[in-house]
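Revision sheet: structure tokens.
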Amino acid sequence: MADKEYSKYQQKIIKNYYDNREQIDAQRLAELVTSLYLASEKKAVRMWESVGELMKRLNVPESRIEHVMKQKDPVILASVVEDLNNGNIK
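Predicted:
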């Protein structure tokens, strides 16, 4: 994919995506909180994997990631999302 030449327009779209990736990841994490409440057990397993990846990309402390992933409780995850939105995690 690196060999492909992109138009100026495509380059701008790609740049904007990566410039806003943190906000996109935070929004996705918030959406997963809601989805986890409603998901079947099978779907929830895949969602929790995504939760772990997103928290790592958002630089959530490793100890907090381990706690959330061990408990697998959407309420605890919601508190992480709230802290991210309030700027308490950085």
